[in-house]
Amino acid sequence: MAQATVTRPTNTTQPIARRLRSLRRRVSTWHVVDGSARLLFWAVVLFTIGFALDFGIRLDVPSRAIMLFLSGVVLLLVIGRRLLWPQFVDVGDDALCLSLEEKFEELNDSLISSWQFSQTDTIDKQGVSPALVSASIDQGVDRIRGVHHARVLNRQRFWLNMLVVLLAGGAIAAIAAGVSRSETLSAWYQRDLLLADVPWPQDRYLQVRGVEGGEVKIPRGDDWTLIVDIADDSPFEYESVYVEFDQASQRPTQAMERSTDGVEFARVVPRVIRPFSFRVSSGRSSSPWYYGRSCSPWYKVVLVDRPEVAELQLEVTPPEYTKQQPYLLPSDRGPHHVLAGSRLDISGVANKALSTAQVTIGDVGLPASLDDEKRFSVTVDADQLTPGSYEIHLADTETPTPLTSNVPRRFTLKQRIDQTPRLKVKLVGISAMVTQAAKIPIECQITDDFSITDVRLTYRWRTDDDAPDGTTGSIPLSELTVGLNTQEASIEYVLDVSKLDVPVGAGLGFRVEADDNDMVSGPKTGVSEEVLLKVVAPGELRGNMLRREKEQRQELEQVLKVQQDLRATTEILQAETRDQPNLTAAQRHQLMQTQKRQRLLATNVESIVGRLSAIVTEVQNNQLEDEGGRIQTRLSDNVIAPLKNLAEQAIPETADELDGVRQAQAESDRRNEKLKNAIDRQAGIVDAVKDVIDQMVESENYQEAVNAAYEVLQSEKQVRDLTIEAAEEAERLARERASQSSDKHGQEPEDGDEPEDNE
Predict the structure, then answer these.
(1) What pTM was computed for the model?
(2) Pairing relation of β-strands 215-219 and 299-304?
(3) Are strands 336-339 and 409-416 parallel, antiparallel or unpaired?
């Protein structure tokens, strides 16, 4: 049997297709409204939470950035899940039909069957009755016409979402409009959306002193006092103010101390060595209706170094009279000694740019000039240069209130004194007594710090009857000075006592004076020690010399005794060791002691020679006899010359022989020879000393006779002088009487007067 061919009635299924397209549009619209509502809702919620948190606890920029990021992530998730994703999901016609049949039970699967049959092209190949298919399609079409497909969507939720969109959108629009009009909304917009560091509007602002451009510059390593001011016109009274630090500072939040007037709070931050950030905030106000919180922005603490002297140069220019070049003082040591009248030039380099620099000397301040941003210089003139501590104070330009040196650079000056000239006077061949005819050789060495300009000899003499000062005088010596106008000078001058008219018995004193070239506090005068002499008659001086000569003879007798002892000791040593192969320890010790005493004897003889030579020179200087006189010849030829030979040759050679004995102690023959030579030399020394002593005794007797004769002559001279003086006095008295008598005889007596009888 032939099978009928079924043609799909496309026109009869158009109502189903239209209904499905309309439903798809409505579903898309519903999802857009639902996603927009959720998006706007979450936007309002998140912005509200951010506003509340930031306004309540004043979040810093990083915290606000995190909140903004999280809010953005949430909103992006809402947009993706509720707006974008439903639009890209392709819902098929079969799914829409099933959704309608699920919603409307009266369709009883007719809609899906009708739609599927209408979409199939091979129904005839499937063995399905075409009539049945056509009937099913017609049934589904009829039933879909009686169904309102909008009932498939949740209309209540749709309208609720619409309300949310309107309210949230209005709120966002109102916020957007209020950003430009409301200070609070503007602050929220800048802080939470633009992440700007602007403060919230407050009834009272906390003002941190020293803030400039969001930064506070403080000295590194110093204790910093944070001071917060509160405006006087605020209607609220703050109970407390806190300072909060960032995590890097590792400091906890701390309460600030309140001043008595309540408008100032302070807190000391000790030893700031690292930069950090901070902000200050207030506690609750005492007002019952205000629970807000005043809070400052976050401020950065920038550490700056205090100005310090990195390089310092101290140049001293000495006074002109010193003729010295300027020199530098070591800046790292002290105290420095500077000559009075000098000029000090101070220059230095700071570690940073300077606004001012000053040098203080006690209470006096000298402003320094700034050669460039770091270099400074100041000149301390001679009249300002005083001993004491000098301080260099610097101020920088980096902070609003210039930072000054925490510990100023110091150096100490002490006044260097230009010493008075130093003089050393030496007399050659003069003792404490001189004659009226003496010529005193004076040697003087003069030293000064800079220059000697004038030299003179001052003298004074007085007798027991004179005034305390006696007779004084001065003799210029500048022309005789070698090295005048230099630091060292020397003088060799012979003072002729005869030109001073000093009487016998008077005390004569003299000294040398020298002036320097100090033109600041001088000139200064240096004075030598005063030499005090007594002017005596020649006989008295001769007697004094004879006494001193006897003293030297007694000293020489002691030398003779010592030498005899040494000779005896050496002879004993020779006798004891003649047959010994070697010396014992005691003998070696005795030998060394003998050698030392022998050498010391030369020194003693040299001292005697020196004192006797001084007597010879003194005879010549005091003009007691002519050059080459008996005293000089006797002492020089018969005493001094032999003693000098002993001191320089005989005695040292004898000591050398004794040393040779020590060296040859293990050689008996050579040792005995050295001992014999030493004994022979010691015997020669004894004989020579005896001869000198005999010469001195003989000359002493002669000199005593001469002195006695001289005293007789002096006595006769005194008697003669007294006789002449008495005769002159008698002659003067006779003349006076003769004159008085002639005056009386030449006058007539007055009434009542009786004439006198002549004697």
Answers:
(1) 0.58
(2) parallel
(3) parallel
